[in-house]
Amino acid sequence: MSQTINIDGVGPVEFPDGMSQADMAHAIETELMPGLKSGGLKLGGASQSPQSPTAPPADQALSYGDRWEQAKDIAGALNTGVRALANGITFGNADRIAAGAGAATGVGGTQGDYAGNLEAERAKTAQFQQEHPIGSTALNTAGNALGAAALPFGAATEGASALLGNLGFSNLFGRAATAVGANALVGGGVGGVQGASNSPDWTDIGRTAKDTAEGMGLGAVTGGAVPVAGAGFNAVRNFFANPEGAIVARALQGVDDATLARAQALMEDAQRRGITLTSAEAVQQASNGASGLGRLQRLTEGTTGGSAVLSPIMANRPGQMQSAVSNELNSIAPPVERPYDVAPAVQKIGEQAMQAAEAMRGRATAPYYQAAKSETINPNAVRAVADSMDQAASADQTGILSRPVNAARDLLVATPGAPAIPATRTPVELPNGTIYKTTAAQPATPDTLSNDIANLDRARKYLRDKIDLPPFAADAIPKEEGKVVGGLIGELRDRMERNSNNFAQGRQEFERISNNIVEPFSNSPTGQLATASTPEAQRAILFPETPLPGSENGIGNAIASIMARNPDLAKSVVRQEAERAANSTVNGLTSTGSPDQWGGAKFVESFRDNPQYAKNFDTVLTRSGGDAGGFNGLLDALQATGKRQGPGSLTAQNTLDLKEMAAPSGFGAMGEAITNPLSILSHVRDAVTRARLENRSGAIANAMVDNPADAIDWLRAARDRAEPVQVPAALSPIAALFAAQYGAH
Questions:
Q1: What is the pLDDT of residues 405-463, one digit of tens each?
Q2: How does 96-127 read in b/e, with b if 16+ C-beta sit within 10 Å?
């Protein structure tokens, strides 16, 4: 309320409510009309009204003095407001800065009197806070924010995190605890600075230290609490609003969009093959088991709504996998109608390949041997070999060696010798008496030995081949005999080489080709097939369970050799191997007689359990004209089915060596709890999560088996909804600053 007085020559003038007439008259005399006497002044028309008076004419406006006073009042208010803002920006040090400036320059204070200036500045600040508590606090807070924004608090927090990480805190306490520690560290530093600024007298060391320590404590607690509060907010939000999103977000940690794209492509390929994969299985396969989506699927399958969707799909899975495998086998080769005809045909091709290698050696050495055929060697050289044979036969007291040695010697004889014939006197009866007919004695005739290269080499090869026959062959030479005979024909070969350059060169070429080509070929898978007559023996050569490292080329060459002579046979061999694996896995039954939902994963294990076997099979399939890429695509899809966690299991199926799984029985669960007490906590945690998912489990299950693009998009969307609200790195130090400023004292 105000009082309005109409003054002649002046107009209406407002006075404060409650001011006495004497005081108003004195004010008029001294301020408005200095030449008048109060007794001559008539006050009238006084009224009390809350309404504004009629504005005076322009020539009756307030004096310049009044306007100056009003301007000073406005300037004073602005000054104190700026002071509050500046105090916030400088963390409470604006009064100190102004006092120091006044002491240094005399502007705004008394020159040389810092203490007096500081007291005056603080008095002005206190007066403004008292008169405008809300505005003062708002301006000071705004100043704090502006000052904090100007400082690199975010970089400081990140630097503290890096420092603690380098010191090993992350390894000891985890990333979350390290983040809390880093924020507490920076918050404590900021709080300490603010606490020191709050201290009224820096010359009082004890008080200043106490205020600094108090600010550090408040700042550290507040700074460390900010990331904890942010994590708590995110946890509560996801727990109630987006449980599947929280699980998806955790499960997809470290899974990038490229991996999700591979998972989508895998689902699409499986779909083309007639196999329904879940998005969880596809991501697990594409990430090589790095995601945790298997748990989400397992928990969803454990709910009423999720089971209603996924159980029929899993029940149909064995048939889907069998059909897909059958189609892939048919792409390799049609079903083998007469499987027992395969092994003999393969062996025959092995024999032909081996014969071809030997024939090549024969063609290479033929010119040398042909030239040597017309040559002869010194008969004494052959006689020396024959004498060695005679000595070996006579030295054998058992008679075991004499027969084969003598038989070998006979092969060297061109004309058999004859023993000496003594003279004879034979009586002849005549009518006149007996007469005697005498036959002259004949000396012994020695045998004549062959000395031509052609016949000697023929005899040598005959004996060599008999020695090389397997023990069960009809004409095979026993081991002991063969050793003796082999040494004798070796002596013959040496003498032939010394006496014939052509024969020596032929032998050298023969040995070179034998060592470098024929014998390695004989030891190769292709050469081994020449003596392998059964399917088991041939499988041990082409598809050994534990193949030698780097054996893919040799086995591939064996299939290529079959392919070159009989393509259908080569493809049948490959199909038989793949079909053998299918019959014991994907086409098989569980121990309870039911179709095996993990049969496809077991089929994959047959091929990929041994990396060298996998490499060998890929090579064989390619060399027989098959599509290794398509076959591996099938294996990828089937392997993904093994990423599914079994009912009641806490582990992915494929990590349990693909043993059959089922929910633990009562005794089984008790045993698990005894051997692994932590499993109880895991099961309790699963039960809580299933309860959270129950009301949306059907929708989650449907999303998992949606068309591939939508299924993967659902994962992305669930993950993105669960993205945590990021707490700015600068928020913790700013909060610490406020806590130290307003929480102290």
A1: 998 999 999 888 787 788 888 888 888 888 888 888 788 788 899 999 999 999 998 98
A2: bebbbbbbeeeeebeeeebeebbebbeebbee
Residues 714 and 580 in one domain: yes
Tell me the C-alpha distance between 601 and 643, whole Å: 9
Q: pTM of the full predicted structure?
A: 0.59
Contact between 733 and 148 under an 8 Å Cβ cutoff? The reply is yes
The single-letter DSSP state of residue 15 is E
Residues 282 and 234 both lie in one domain: no
Question: Is the four-CA dihedral 285, 286, 291, 294 of positive or negative sign?
Answer: negative
Residue 232 lies in a domain: yes
558 close to 352: Cβ distance less than 8 angstroms: no
φ, ψ for residue 595 (rounded to 5)?
Answer: -60, 140
Total tally of structural domains belonging to the chain: 5
Q: Are residues 269 and 417 in the same domain?
A: no
Residues with Cβ < 8 Å from 554, sequence gap 6 or more?
Answer: 524, 525, 526
662 and 708 belong to one structural domain: yes
Categorise residue 722: left if φ over 0, alpha if ψ from -120 to 50, beta otherwise: alpha
Which amino acid appears at position 216 of this protein? M
Residue whose structure tokens are 């050696």 = 361
Helices (H), 584-707: 599-608, 611-623, 628-641, 666-675, 678-693, 697-704
Range of the domain at 670: 243-332+571-721
What letter does residue 547 receive in the DSSP assignment?
P
634 assigned to some structural domain? yes
Would 527 be classed as within a structural domain? Answer: no
What is the CA angle 113-116-117, rounded to 5?
80
User: What's the rounded Cα separation, in Å, for the pair 719 and 280?
Assistant: 13
The verdict on residue 229 lying in a domain is yes
Domain boundary among 15, 43, 61: 61
CA–CA dist 77, 718 (Å, integer): 54
Query: End of a domain among 507, 522, 537?
Result: 522
Helix axes 243-251 and 293-301, enclosed angle (nearest 10): 140
Give pLDDT, residue 192.
77
Rounded Cα distance, 288 and 75, in Å: 72
Kindly give, in sequence order, each residue whose CB lies less than 8 Å from that of residue 240, ignoring residues fewer than 6 positions away: none
